[in-house]
């Protein structure tokens, strides 16, 4: 019922411009944005980082007050003109007419007050007459509404006693306290696991329908908004490049940027073989049009690398048997420690030229597994055989020559590069460590590689801060490649990147695999990404492998309940299929309850 | 909780034992390494006529000829069981906790320190409250009105406060408001129990002097902490709820800002309780700090040892109190 759009829009934005004065001149973060949200309607605002979507949502709350931002145009929420409202009117409107849910639930609740205190405060600031007991009763009701179990008990808990998903529910409950007309959710699920993301999105959708609130869902991921909104605005560089009904925009995008964005979204239904074929075709087309200058060089290097990809190999490159990893957690009485098994008995074989995908949510042990395989940790139990040698309990000194054969690419391209080393040094150091003395040789080698990963040789002397996230990840890949490793472990290599950058990095990894015959272990939480790069897949949960096998069969015919849950939770682009998935999830939850 | 307190107390006792040993070693062992004979040591304590007999008597009286380990053992024994000292034919009881006898005044050290304790505690607690309240208030206002005239003036004064030593600011205060302008009487200690108003009046200037130095540091710390907290996501959440700036600052931003400050306050207060040496000296207040200074100038080893141990006890206790109070300030910290 709530979705019926009345004639009067509850949010109206017309020609919104937000400008930040900086030392290098003005920066226009939003350039003439217009949209409307009808009462009870749902709008998605989608854009990559820097597109101005968060600046827009702060403008809706009037949260630019007191900052240096200059705002022009019309911003009207529930009849209040945000730009001209007095401070008092603005405060009355916040929480009362429009409530906001932020990106990081770990940071957006006050750590030193109970959630009950924070919820009660949200109500009493707007309804000063409400008694404490009444406000508390309402708080318990709101917690119950968003699905916090045992709300009368949990109302006295502190935020750190909740998981990320539960905290996000608490933030939503806080938004509901005054029954706002609009709920503004800025990347509400970006910091959450896939299944939790699905739960939070389902909750938002349900609340919107039941309470007749309007919903503005801001995200960098088209697939996140697809199933939850009626209308979508695609933003780029502060402008709306496309706006319209969600079905139309997603099925028949008009603007080339939207088309590119849609093409870049990894789809869980696309198999590894399809993706490879597509990538190779694209590459051939590109090489055909530009001439194959760099290709020739690349294949020279490839010749020196490890042999080609082959299924019929008898001996695996890496063989892991029943590996387990225990951590001691301090904190018992008298400083006693308890055991925590992060990985409990994992076995797999990895052949040359293959990619093994490891999927799992946070806490599943996937990162620990990759660190154990790399022998950054010594396995508590089990056996790791790499290239025919048992490295399970090898000493650091013996391991050192093997280190060059296994390299790693990390998640955050921002913190994995030393900001005080030039790109050339960052990549070249590994060669120096391995005994190369000739500086000129190192330079030539590094510049060759820079070119190979899509950067310029002239970037040699630059520092990491001069590069974007995607470029930095390319630098990290070059650093991993410099020693011609046999195995590269990629730990969430694209999860910090925008969709289009993510797509480019994935392409690069696949090209390099073709050219150098590389073997990858690809660790990620994104099911679609893992499917497209992996020959075989391990699905992990709480330190155990719940399912493993050929990637197509795992994805198309999942055997374990958990894999099915993950797949049902994966966001999909088609709005109708997204709604089907939502219904499916509700059935599953009803079944398990 | 109980096991935590016991563990911390155990660690505290261990620390005190180490402090005792190190201090003991510095004054009793190092001079010997430096080549001073027992007789030379005794010469310092013999009085006006350093005759051979007098020196020998002193060596015997102080037990300087015995091995260091035995001397240390005697000292520790004295703390727990008390000791007896013989002066010629006279025997003097020194009841537990016995920190020994002053070489110079022949007075028991422990009662001497206890007698001076009220002065030092008055000075430390009064100044502590002043600098805590003053420093935090100035820091908060500076952070909220960052870049304002108030902020810049306060931070300039704070920088001055941190840079100027107490013996300078103290003398300035004595020179102008007291002597030249006659606004205040010369500061002196009046016991609180006798005359509360006189107590406050007499201690006012020492409080201000000691508090100024610390308040300056606290103001800078508070300002920096507050600015960081104001940038946190949960402050944005508080604003998005519709709270006014006062609640945002005083309820949501102040508490996280205070958390680290409570920790330093415990340390600073413990330090000052062990003797605010400079302030007591400048204002001629007869507290533990002044006692320590005179003991050092006279090489009165037992007194130095006693005062050091006392100071260490204060720091250990204050730290323990802070750690026990911490979970009240930050619920994420749990004691086990």
TrEMBL record, chain A:
Entry keyword annotation includes RNA-binding: no
Region described as Disordered: spans on this chain: 273-314
Superkingdom field: Bacteria
Biased composition (Basic and acidic residues): 273-285
Protein name (Swiss-Prot/TrEMBL): Peptide/nickel transport system ATP-binding protein
Organism listed in the record: Nocardiopsis algeriensis
Pfam families for this protein: ABC_tran, oligo_HPY
GO molecular function: ATP binding; ATP hydrolysis activity
ABC transporter domain segment(s): 11-262, 318-567
Family as reported in the entry's similarity comment: Belongs to the ABC transporter superfamily.
Keywords: ATP-binding, Nucleotide-binding, Transport
Automatic annotation (TrEMBL), chain B:
UniProt protein name: Peptide/nickel transport system permease protein
A Pfam family annotated for this UniProt entry: BPD_transp_1
Transport as UniProt keyword: yes
One Gene Ontology cellular component: plasma membrane
Subcellular location, record wording: Cell membrane
Entry similarity comment: Belongs to the binding-protein-dependent transport system permease family.
PANTHER family, per the entry: DIPEPTIDE TRANSPORT SYSTEM PERMEASE PROTEIN DPPB-RELATED (PTHR43163:SF6)
Stretches that traverse the bilayer: 12-30, 121-145, 157-177, 197-219, 261-283, 303-326
Domain ABC transmembrane type-1: 117-326
One GO molecular-function entry: dipeptide transmembrane transporter activity
Keywords: Cell membrane, Membrane, Transmembrane, Transmembrane helix, Transport
InterPro entries linked to this entry: BPD_transp_1_N (IPR045621), MetI-like (IPR000515), MetI-like_sf (IPR035906)
Membrane topology: Multi-pass membrane protein
């Amino acid at each position: 019922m709530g979705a019926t759009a009345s004639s009067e829009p509850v949010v109206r934005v017309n020609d919104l411009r937000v400008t930040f004065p900086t030392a290098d001149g003005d920066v226009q973060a939003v350039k003439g944005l217009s949209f409307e949200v009808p009462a009870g309607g749902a709008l998605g605002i989608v854009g990559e980082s820097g597109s101005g979507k968060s600046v827009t949502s702060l403008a809706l709350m009037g949260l630019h007050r007191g900052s240096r931002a200059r705002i022009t145009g019309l911003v009207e929420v529930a009849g209040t003109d945000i730009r001209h409202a007095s401070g008092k009117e603005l405060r009355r409107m916040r929480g009362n007419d429009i409530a906001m849910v932020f990106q990081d639930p770990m940071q957006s609740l006050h750590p030193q007050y109970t959630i009950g205190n924070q919820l009660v405060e949200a109500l009493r600031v707007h309804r000063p007459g409400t008694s404490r007991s009444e406000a508390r009763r309402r708080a318990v009701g709101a917690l119950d509404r968003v699905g916090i179990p045992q709300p009368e008990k949990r109302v006295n808990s502190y935020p750190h006693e909740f998981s990320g998903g539960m905290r996000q529910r608490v933030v939503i409950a806080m938004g509901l306290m005054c029954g706002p007309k609009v709920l503004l959710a800025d990347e509400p699920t970006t910091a959450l696991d896939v299944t939790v993301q699905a739960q939070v999105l389902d909750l938002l959708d349900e609340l919107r329908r039941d309470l007749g609130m309007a919903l503005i869902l801001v995200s960098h991921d088209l697939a996140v908004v697809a199933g939850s909104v009626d209308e979508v605005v695609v933003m780029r560089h502060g402008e709306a490049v496309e706006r319209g009904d969600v079905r139309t925009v997603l099925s028949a995008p008009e603007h080339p940027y939207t088309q590119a964005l849609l093409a870049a979204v990894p789809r869980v239904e696309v198999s590894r073989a399809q993706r490879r074929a597509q990538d190779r075709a694209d590459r051939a087309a590109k090489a055909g049009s530009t001439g194959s200058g760099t290709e020739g060089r690349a294949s020279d290097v490839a010749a020196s690398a490890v042999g080609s990809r082959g299924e019929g190999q008898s001996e695996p490159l890496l063989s892991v048997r029943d590996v387990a990893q225990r951590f001691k957690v301090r904190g018992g009485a008298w400083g006693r420690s308890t055991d925590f098994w992060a990985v409990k008995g994992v076995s797999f074989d990895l052949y040359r030229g293959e990619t093994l995908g490891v999927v799992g949510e946070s806490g599943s042990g996937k990162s620990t597994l990759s660190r154990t395989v790399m022998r950054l940790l010594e396995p508590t139990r089990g056996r790791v055989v790499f290239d025919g040698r048992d490295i399970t309990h090898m000493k650091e000194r013996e391991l050192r020559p093997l280190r060059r054969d296994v390299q790693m690419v990390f998640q955050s391209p921002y913190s994995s590069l030393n900001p005080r080393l030039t790109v050339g040094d960052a990549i070249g150091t590994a060669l120096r460590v391995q005994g190369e003395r000739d500086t000129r040789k190192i330079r030539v080698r590094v510049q060759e590689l820079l070119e190979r990963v899509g950067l310029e040789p002239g970037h040699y002397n630059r520092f990491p801060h001069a590069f974007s996230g995607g470029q930095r990840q390319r630098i990290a890949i070059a650093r991993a490649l410099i020693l011609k490793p046999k195995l590269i472990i990629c730990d969430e290599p694209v999860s910090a990147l925008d969709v289009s950058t993510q797509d480019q990095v994935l392409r690069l990894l696949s090209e390099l695999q073709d050219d150098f015959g590389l073997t990858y272990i690809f660790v990620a939480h994104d099911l679609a990404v893992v499917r497209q790069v992996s020959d075989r897949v391990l699905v992990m949960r709480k330190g155990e492998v719940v399912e493993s096998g050929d990637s197509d069969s795992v994805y198309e015919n999942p055997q374990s309940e958990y894999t099915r849950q993950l797949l049902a939770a994966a966001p999909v682009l088609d709005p109708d299929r997204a709604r089907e998935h939502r219904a499916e999830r509700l059935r599953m939850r009803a079944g398990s309850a | 909780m109980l096991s935590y307190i016991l563990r911390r107390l155990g660690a505290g006792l261990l620390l005190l034992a180490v402090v005792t040993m190190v201090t003991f070693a510095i004054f009793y062992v190092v001079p010997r390494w430096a080549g001073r004979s027992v007789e030379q040591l005794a010469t310092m304590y013999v009085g006006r006529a350093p005759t051979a007999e007098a020196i020998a008597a002193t060596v015997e009286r102080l037990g300087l000829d015995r091995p260091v380990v035995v001397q240390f053992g005697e000292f520790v024994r004295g703390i727990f069981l008390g000791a007896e000292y013989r002066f010629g034919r006279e025997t003097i009881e020194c009841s537990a906790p016995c920190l020994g006898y002053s070489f110079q005044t022949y007075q028991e050290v422990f009662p001497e320190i206890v007698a001076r304790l009220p002065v030092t505690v008055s000075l430390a607690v009064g100044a502590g409250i002043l600098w805590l309240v003053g420093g935090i208030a100035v820091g908060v206002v500076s952070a909220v009105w960052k870049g304002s005239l108030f902020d810049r003036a306060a931070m300039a004064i704070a920088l001055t406060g941190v840079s100027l030593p107490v013996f300078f600011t103290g003398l300035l205060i004595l020179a102008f408001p007291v002597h030249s302008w006659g606004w205040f009487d010369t500061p002196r200690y009046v016991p609180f129990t006798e005359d509360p108003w006189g107590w406050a009046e007499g201690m006012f200037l020492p409080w201000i002097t000691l508090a100024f130095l610390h308040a300056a540091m606290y103001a800078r710390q508070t300002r920096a902490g507050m600015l960081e907290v104001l940038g946190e996501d949960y402050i944005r959440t508080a604003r998005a709820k519709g709270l006014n700036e006062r609640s945002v600052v005083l309820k949501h931003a102040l508490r996280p800002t205070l958390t680290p400050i409570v920790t330093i306050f415990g340390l600073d207060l413990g330090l000052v309780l062990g003797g605010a040496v400079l302030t007591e000296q400048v204002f001629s207040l007869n507290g533990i700090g002044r006692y320590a200074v005179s003991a050092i100038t006279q090489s009165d080893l037992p007194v130095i040892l006693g005062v050091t141990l006392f100071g260490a006890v204060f720091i250990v206790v204050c730290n323990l109190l802070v750690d026990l109070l911490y979970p009240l300030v930050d619920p994420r910290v749990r004691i086990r």
